[in-house]
Write a structure and sequence with these properties.
Blueprint: H1 9-12, H2 25-42, H3 50-63, E1 71-72, E2 85-88, E3 91-95, H4 99-102, E4 118-122, E5 125-128, H5 134-144, E6 170-174, E7 190-194, H6 221-230, H7 238-246, E8 309-315, H8 320-326, E9 331-332, E10 350-354, E11 374-377, E12 385-386, E13 390-392
Parallel strand pairs: 4-9, 8-12
Antiparallel strand pairs: 1-3, 2-5, 3-4, 5-13, 6-7, 8-10, 10-11
The protein binds calcium ion.
Residues 269-271, 281, 283, 285-286, 358 line the site of calcium ion.
Length: 397
């Protein structure tokens, strides 16, 4: 099982290698999970059963006030949709999350970096209906010979002083624990797996057979960018992502409304059961799911909550929404802050993640809530991080 003592002990010292371009396993785990850790520390599995969450949902839904209606542009799509994409009309909307959502996890801080609610305008754009799939990423790699960061062997030059035995390509993989554990040390359920990468999601013994339509994972930011460029697309800004995820609705907790399971129906692939021991798979999937297994949102987008986190092009700053709100005007096509800054890890360069993953649960994360934010160090992938692309409207003939 994955426990702290299974990690290469000398490798743990590499935590001090801040400022390098690439982070081997221990640093990788820290970077990917940094945002989650705060929640894990604060919110234990004893927070309450799902029924509590659903009561809180009702409270949250009735106490919202900062959201104003979404005003979609009336301009039609500039042409026929590129394959696999839908037109997101653009317009003005209320972005972010408020205190009401925090009650879902019974802890402070879940939505803090997504506050306050502020008005944003985005131009219309095309967006991939689904996360990028293994079969698509395979086409890209075959056409270009691209090698992802997780497949590259870390070099001595990148990590001077690292013991040679630690300079091995790989990525971080989630592993359930044998029994309940305090949620204050993610080394208990994340491990660096040598040979793990997009072709081998759980390590060298695993492969993509039958997983063609699963979202590609173990994708670092430069990998996602390289794919997007090849495809004639780009990564979404955080504002584009949230406008699209809300699907024309305003102020809802989720991409589909205020109930996690409307009419008892699961709407996303998340984690059920006691984290990180046993995912009961009540939503139909214990672990990653193929794309588009749940209903699309109002704009025809699948999996804008759960399954895999998605990269956005914005640098992450915890105070960015507050900065925009303080300007007092509608923020037009915001591109993110000039520089990254995460107070929890000030030396790491992080970009925004959105949407949550199959590992998110009311016990500590709940960031399948549409207005909440995630973040990750740019060279770090894991088996619950993927992406989807967008395309500027004018670029389509
Ligand atoms: Ca699930």
């Amino acid at each position: 099982m994955s426990t702290r003592k299974n990690l290469p002990q000398r490798g743990r010292q590499q935590v001090t290698f801040h400022g390098t371009k690439r982070f081997p396993w221990v640093v990788a785990g820290v970077a990917v999970m940094a945002g989650l850790v705060a929640f894990m520390l604060l919110c234990s599995p004893s927070t309450g059963p799902a029924s509590t969450a659903s009561t809180n949902e009702k409270d949250a839904a009735t106490t919202k006030s900062a959201f104003a209606p979404t005003i979609p542009d009336k301009t039609p799509a500039p042409g026929p949709a590129p394959q696999g994409m839908v037109w997101i009309p653009g317009g003005e909307f209320s972005m972010g999350s408020d205190e009401a959502g925090e009650s879902l996890c019974g802890l402070p801080g879940v939505t803090r970096d997504a506050q306050p609610i502020h008005r944003v305008y985005v131009d219309g754009f095309w967006m991939d209906k689904t996360d990028v799939r293994n079969e698509q990423f395979d086409q890209f790699v075959k056409a270009t010979g691209y090698v992802t960061i997780a497949e590259r062997t870390p070099t001595k030059e990148e990590f001077p002083g690292a013991p040679p035995e630690n300079l091995v390509a790989g990525s971080t993989v989630f592993t359930p624990t044998a029994g309940p554990v305090p949620l204050n040390d993610y080394f208990q359920w994340w491990r660096y797996e040598k040979g793990a990468n997009w072709r081998h999601p759980e390590g060298s013994a695993s492969d993509l057979k039958g997983r063609e339509k699963y979202p590609v994972v173990h994708i670092a930011y430069p990998d996602a960018e390289a794919y997007a460029k090849w495809a004639g697309k780009r990564l979404p800004t955080e504002a584009e992502w949230e406008f699209a995820a809300r699907g024309g609705l305003s102020g809802k907790l989720y991409a589909w409304g205020d109930q996690l399971k409307p009419g008892g129906k699961w709407m996303a692939n998340i984690y059920e059961g006691q984290f990180p021991v046993k995912d009961t798979g009540d939503d139909g999937f214990a672990g990653l799911a193929p794309v588009a297994q749940f209903p699309a949102n109002g704009y025809g987008l699948y999996d804008m909550a759960g399954n895999v986190w998605q990269w956005c092009s914005d640098w992450y700053r915890a105070d960015y929404f507050a900065t925009l709100a303080a300007q007092g005007a509608v923020a037009r096509n915001p591109q993110g802050p000039e520089t990254p800054y995460d107070p929890a890890e000030p030396t790491e360069k992080k970009r925004v993640h959105r949407g949550g993953s199959f590992l998110c649960t009311y016990q500590y994360c709940t960031r399948y809530m549409v207005g909440t934010r995630g973040k990750g160090e740019v060279t770090t992938g894991s088996n619950h991080l993927g992406f989807r692309c967008v395309k500027t409207g004018e670029a389509v003939k």
